[in-house]
Write a structure and sequence with these properties.
The strands form 2 sheets. A 5-stranded mixed β-sheet has the order 1-7-6-3-4, with no helix packed on it. It folds into 3 domains: about 1-95, Immunoglobulins (Immunoglobulin-like); about 95-175; about 175-285, Arc Repressor Mutant, subunit A (Orthogonal Bundle). By secondary structure, it is of the alpha+beta class. It has helices at about 100-170, 175-190, 200-205, 210-220, 225-245, 250-255, 260-270, 275-285; strands spanning about 1-5, 10-15, 25-30, 40, 55-60, 65-75, 85-90. β3 and β4 form a beta hairpin.
Length: about 290
Protein backbone atom coordinates (compact mmCIF):
# COMPACT_ATOMS: atom_id res chain seq x y z
CA UNK A 1 0.00 0.00 0.00
CA UNK A 2 1.52 3.33 -1.08
CA UNK A 3 0.39 6.62 0.39
CA UNK A 4 1.35 10.27 -0.05
CA UNK A 5 3.07 12.26 2.71
CA UNK A 6 -0.24 13.82 3.85
CA UNK A 7 -1.94 10.41 4.21
CA UNK A 8 0.02 9.48 7.30
CA UNK A 9 -2.91 9.11 9.71
CA UNK A 10 -3.86 5.42 9.42
CA UNK A 11 -6.48 3.15 10.94
CA UNK A 12 -5.94 -0.56 10.24
CA UNK A 13 -8.62 -3.16 10.95
CA UNK A 14 -8.24 -6.91 11.08
CA UNK A 15 -10.83 -9.65 11.69
CA UNK A 16 -10.13 -13.26 12.67
CA UNK A 17 -13.56 -14.29 11.29
CA UNK A 18 -14.50 -15.88 14.61
CA UNK A 19 -18.25 -15.55 14.32
CA UNK A 20 -19.12 -18.01 17.11
CA UNK A 21 -17.07 -16.52 19.93
CA UNK A 22 -15.69 -13.16 18.73
CA UNK A 23 -15.06 -11.99 22.29
CA UNK A 24 -12.65 -14.87 22.91
CA UNK A 25 -10.43 -13.76 20.04
CA UNK A 26 -7.02 -12.34 20.94
CA UNK A 27 -4.74 -10.38 18.62
CA UNK A 28 -1.05 -9.60 18.42
CA UNK A 29 0.24 -6.89 16.09
CA UNK A 30 3.38 -4.90 15.36
CA UNK A 31 4.20 -2.07 12.98
CA UNK A 32 7.86 -2.58 12.21
CA UNK A 33 9.68 0.72 12.46
CA UNK A 34 7.28 2.10 15.06
CA UNK A 35 6.50 -0.67 17.56
CA UNK A 36 9.53 -2.28 19.17
CA UNK A 37 7.56 -5.28 20.52
CA UNK A 38 4.40 -7.16 19.72
CA UNK A 39 1.28 -5.53 21.09
CA UNK A 40 -1.40 -7.91 22.45
CA UNK A 41 -5.11 -7.05 22.34
CA UNK A 42 -8.06 -8.92 23.80
CA UNK A 43 -11.69 -8.32 24.68
CA UNK A 44 -12.05 -5.14 26.68
CA UNK A 45 -8.84 -3.60 25.34
CA UNK A 46 -8.81 -0.18 23.74
CA UNK A 47 -8.27 -1.46 20.19
CA UNK A 48 -10.77 -4.34 20.47
CA UNK A 49 -14.20 -3.64 18.99
CA UNK A 50 -17.39 -5.13 20.30
CA UNK A 51 -17.76 -7.26 17.17
CA UNK A 52 -14.35 -8.85 17.72
CA UNK A 53 -12.49 -6.81 15.10
CA UNK A 54 -9.02 -5.37 15.78
CA UNK A 55 -8.75 -1.63 15.06
CA UNK A 56 -5.32 0.05 15.30
CA UNK A 57 -4.60 3.70 14.59
CA UNK A 58 -1.29 5.43 13.87
CA UNK A 59 -0.96 9.19 13.55
CA UNK A 60 1.59 11.44 11.90
CA UNK A 61 3.76 8.67 10.52
CA UNK A 62 6.96 10.02 8.95
CA UNK A 63 7.75 9.11 5.33
CA UNK A 64 9.27 5.65 4.96
CA UNK A 65 8.55 1.95 4.54
CA UNK A 66 6.65 0.01 7.20
CA UNK A 67 5.53 -3.59 7.66
CA UNK A 68 2.35 -4.21 9.62
CA UNK A 69 2.11 -7.77 11.01
CA UNK A 70 -0.85 -9.25 12.85
CA UNK A 71 -1.93 -12.67 14.09
CA UNK A 72 -5.08 -13.93 15.85
CA UNK A 73 -5.88 -16.70 18.35
CA UNK A 74 -8.95 -18.03 20.11
CA UNK A 75 -6.74 -19.61 22.80
CA UNK A 76 -4.36 -17.83 25.12
CA UNK A 77 -1.45 -20.07 24.30
CA UNK A 78 -2.05 -20.95 20.68
CA UNK A 79 -1.02 -18.51 17.93
CA UNK A 80 -0.77 -18.96 14.21
CA UNK A 81 2.78 -19.72 13.16
CA UNK A 82 2.69 -17.09 10.45
CA UNK A 83 1.40 -13.54 10.72
CA UNK A 84 -0.53 -11.63 8.14
CA UNK A 85 1.59 -8.82 6.71
CA UNK A 86 0.86 -5.53 5.01
CA UNK A 87 3.66 -3.43 3.51
CA UNK A 88 3.01 0.29 3.79
CA UNK A 89 4.98 2.96 1.93
CA UNK A 90 4.50 6.63 2.79
CA UNK A 91 6.18 8.80 0.19
CA UNK A 92 8.10 11.91 1.23
CA UNK A 93 6.96 15.35 -0.04
CA UNK A 94 8.70 16.46 -3.19
CA UNK A 95 10.86 18.98 -1.30
CA UNK A 96 12.29 16.15 0.84
CA UNK A 97 13.05 13.69 -1.94
CA UNK A 98 16.55 12.75 -3.09
CA UNK A 99 15.97 14.66 -6.30
CA UNK A 100 15.05 17.77 -4.33
CA UNK A 101 18.15 17.45 -2.13
CA UNK A 102 20.28 17.03 -5.25
CA UNK A 103 18.73 20.21 -6.67
CA UNK A 104 19.42 21.98 -3.38
CA UNK A 105 23.07 20.94 -3.53
CA UNK A 106 23.36 22.02 -7.16
CA UNK A 107 21.74 25.37 -6.31
CA UNK A 108 24.17 25.95 -3.44
CA UNK A 109 27.11 25.11 -5.71
CA UNK A 110 25.79 27.44 -8.40
CA UNK A 111 25.32 30.25 -5.88
CA UNK A 112 28.85 29.71 -4.56
CA UNK A 113 30.27 29.64 -8.08
CA UNK A 114 28.33 32.80 -8.97
CA UNK A 115 29.56 34.51 -5.80
CA UNK A 116 33.16 33.60 -6.60
CA UNK A 117 32.72 34.80 -10.19
CA UNK A 118 31.19 38.10 -9.08
CA UNK A 119 33.91 38.61 -6.47
CA UNK A 120 36.69 37.89 -8.95
CA UNK A 121 35.04 40.12 -11.54
CA UNK A 122 34.67 42.92 -8.98
CA UNK A 123 38.30 42.50 -7.87
CA UNK A 124 39.53 42.52 -11.46
CA UNK A 125 37.56 45.67 -12.33
CA UNK A 126 38.75 47.34 -9.13
CA UNK A 127 42.36 46.50 -9.99
CA UNK A 128 41.90 47.73 -13.58
CA UNK A 129 40.35 50.97 -12.34
CA UNK A 130 43.19 51.48 -9.87
CA UNK A 131 45.73 50.68 -12.58
CA UNK A 132 44.13 53.21 -14.92
CA UNK A 133 44.17 55.81 -12.16
CA UNK A 134 47.85 55.14 -11.48
CA UNK A 135 48.67 55.45 -15.17
CA UNK A 136 46.74 58.71 -15.34
CA UNK A 137 48.56 60.04 -12.27
CA UNK A 138 51.90 59.05 -13.77
CA UNK A 139 51.05 60.91 -16.96
CA UNK A 140 49.98 63.97 -14.99
CA UNK A 141 53.20 63.87 -12.92
CA UNK A 142 55.22 63.51 -16.10
CA UNK A 143 53.49 66.50 -17.67
CA UNK A 144 54.00 68.55 -14.50
CA UNK A 145 57.68 67.60 -14.38
CA UNK A 146 58.10 68.58 -18.02
CA UNK A 147 56.32 71.88 -17.39
CA UNK A 148 58.42 72.56 -14.30
CA UNK A 149 61.57 71.69 -16.21
CA UNK A 150 60.70 74.15 -18.96
CA UNK A 151 59.79 76.84 -16.45
CA UNK A 152 62.96 76.09 -14.49
CA UNK A 153 65.07 76.52 -17.59
CA UNK A 154 63.37 79.82 -18.36
CA UNK A 155 63.77 81.06 -14.77
CA UNK A 156 67.37 79.86 -14.72
CA UNK A 157 68.16 81.79 -17.86
CA UNK A 158 66.40 84.86 -16.49
CA UNK A 159 68.17 84.50 -13.13
CA UNK A 160 71.55 84.18 -14.80
CA UNK A 161 70.93 87.33 -16.81
CA UNK A 162 69.77 89.22 -13.73
CA UNK A 163 72.71 87.95 -11.69
CA UNK A 164 75.17 88.96 -14.34
CA UNK A 165 73.55 92.36 -14.50
CA UNK A 166 73.62 92.80 -10.72
CA UNK A 167 77.20 91.63 -10.44
CA UNK A 168 78.22 93.99 -13.16
CA UNK A 169 76.46 96.82 -11.37
CA UNK A 170 77.63 95.71 -7.91
CA UNK A 171 74.09 95.54 -6.51
CA UNK A 172 72.52 93.16 -3.97
CA UNK A 173 71.52 89.76 -5.53
CA UNK A 174 68.01 90.16 -4.03
CA UNK A 175 65.83 92.66 -5.76
CA UNK A 176 63.98 95.19 -3.58
CA UNK A 177 60.72 93.47 -4.40
CA UNK A 178 62.08 90.07 -3.32
CA UNK A 179 63.60 91.53 -0.17
CA UNK A 180 60.31 93.20 0.68
CA UNK A 181 58.46 89.94 0.03
CA UNK A 182 60.74 87.93 2.33
CA UNK A 183 60.54 90.58 5.02
CA UNK A 184 56.75 90.52 4.88
CA UNK A 185 56.66 86.70 4.92
CA UNK A 186 58.97 86.55 7.95
CA UNK A 187 56.89 89.16 9.76
CA UNK A 188 53.65 87.27 9.09
CA UNK A 189 55.11 84.01 10.40
CA UNK A 190 56.58 85.70 13.50
CA UNK A 191 53.17 87.18 14.28
CA UNK A 192 51.72 83.65 14.38
CA UNK A 193 54.57 81.77 16.08
CA UNK A 194 52.44 80.93 19.10
CA UNK A 195 49.87 79.18 16.87
CA UNK A 196 50.88 75.51 16.37
CA UNK A 197 48.31 75.03 13.61
CA UNK A 198 49.61 77.90 11.50
CA UNK A 199 50.02 76.22 8.11
CA UNK A 200 51.32 76.83 4.61
CA UNK A 201 47.73 77.36 3.45
CA UNK A 202 47.24 80.13 6.02
CA UNK A 203 50.57 81.74 5.11
CA UNK A 204 49.64 81.77 1.42
CA UNK A 205 46.30 83.40 2.28
CA UNK A 206 48.01 86.01 4.48
CA UNK A 207 50.38 86.83 1.61
CA UNK A 208 47.51 86.85 -0.91
CA UNK A 209 49.14 84.10 -2.96
CA UNK A 210 48.19 80.62 -4.03
CA UNK A 211 50.16 77.75 -2.50
CA UNK A 212 51.88 76.86 -5.77
CA UNK A 213 53.07 80.42 -6.30
CA UNK A 214 54.32 80.65 -2.71
CA UNK A 215 56.18 77.37 -3.06
CA UNK A 216 57.90 78.45 -6.26
CA UNK A 217 58.76 81.86 -4.82
CA UNK A 218 60.43 80.49 -1.67
CA UNK A 219 62.24 77.77 -3.58
CA UNK A 220 63.57 80.37 -5.99
CA UNK A 221 64.66 82.85 -3.31
CA UNK A 222 65.73 80.59 -0.43
CA UNK A 223 65.73 77.07 -1.83
CA UNK A 224 63.25 76.11 0.90
CA UNK A 225 59.68 74.90 0.86
CA UNK A 226 57.06 76.97 2.71
CA UNK A 227 56.85 74.42 5.53
CA UNK A 228 60.64 74.49 5.95
CA UNK A 229 60.53 78.29 5.86
CA UNK A 230 57.96 78.42 8.69
CA UNK A 231 59.84 75.82 10.74
CA UNK A 232 63.15 77.69 10.31
CA UNK A 233 61.66 80.93 11.63
CA UNK A 234 60.16 79.08 14.61
CA UNK A 235 63.54 77.51 15.42
CA UNK A 236 65.42 80.80 15.05
CA UNK A 237 63.05 82.43 17.54
CA UNK A 238 63.48 79.41 19.83
CA UNK A 239 67.26 79.82 19.75
CA UNK A 240 66.92 83.47 20.80
CA UNK A 241 64.53 82.56 23.61
CA UNK A 242 66.97 79.94 24.93
CA UNK A 243 69.74 82.54 25.05
CA UNK A 244 67.70 85.50 26.31
CA UNK A 245 65.11 84.01 28.70
CA UNK A 246 65.17 81.49 31.51
CA UNK A 247 62.58 79.05 30.14
CA UNK A 248 62.25 75.28 30.10
CA UNK A 249 62.47 73.43 26.79
CA UNK A 250 58.72 72.70 26.96
CA UNK A 251 57.93 76.40 27.48
CA UNK A 252 60.18 77.40 24.59
CA UNK A 253 58.52 74.82 22.33
CA UNK A 254 55.06 76.14 23.21
CA UNK A 255 56.07 79.77 22.61
CA UNK A 256 57.25 79.01 19.07
CA UNK A 257 54.27 76.85 18.12
CA UNK A 258 55.50 73.27 18.69
CA UNK A 259 52.88 71.13 20.39
CA UNK A 260 55.41 68.34 21.03
CA UNK A 261 58.65 69.07 22.87
CA UNK A 262 60.24 65.87 21.53
CA UNK A 263 59.52 66.88 17.93
CA UNK A 264 60.81 70.37 18.71
CA UNK A 265 64.07 68.92 20.05
CA UNK A 266 64.44 66.74 16.95
CA UNK A 267 63.95 69.67 14.56
CA UNK A 268 66.23 71.90 16.65
CA UNK A 269 69.03 69.35 16.59
CA UNK A 270 68.69 68.93 12.82
CA UNK A 271 69.11 72.68 12.33
CA UNK A 272 71.72 73.57 14.98
CA UNK A 273 73.50 70.24 15.44
CA UNK A 274 72.77 69.99 19.18
CA UNK A 275 69.89 69.55 21.57
CA UNK A 276 68.10 72.68 22.84
CA UNK A 277 69.42 72.01 26.34
CA UNK A 278 73.00 72.12 24.99
CA UNK A 279 72.61 75.14 22.73
CA UNK A 280 73.32 77.91 25.25
CA UNK A 281 76.41 76.14 26.56
CA UNK A 282 77.72 75.57 23.02
CA UNK A 283 77.27 79.24 22.14
CA UNK A 284 79.01 80.27 25.36
CA UNK A 285 81.96 77.96 24.69
CA UNK A 286 82.29 79.10 21.09
CA UNK A 287 82.62 82.70 22.15
Amino acid sequence: MELSFNQNFLTLEYSALNYLNPFQTRYRYQLAGIDNDWMEVFSGSENFRTNGILSVSYTNLPPGEYLFRVMASDNNNQWDATASELKIIIHAPWWKTKTAYALYAISVLLIMALSVFLYLNYTRKKWERKHREELLLQRIRHLIQQQQLLEGEKESNTSKKATNLKHSEGTNPLSPADAEFLSRAIKVVEQNLYEPNYSVAQLSRDLCMDRTGLYRKLILLMDKSPSSFIRRIRLQRAARLILEEDLSITEVAEKVGFSSSSYFSKCFQEMYGCRPSEYAENIKNST
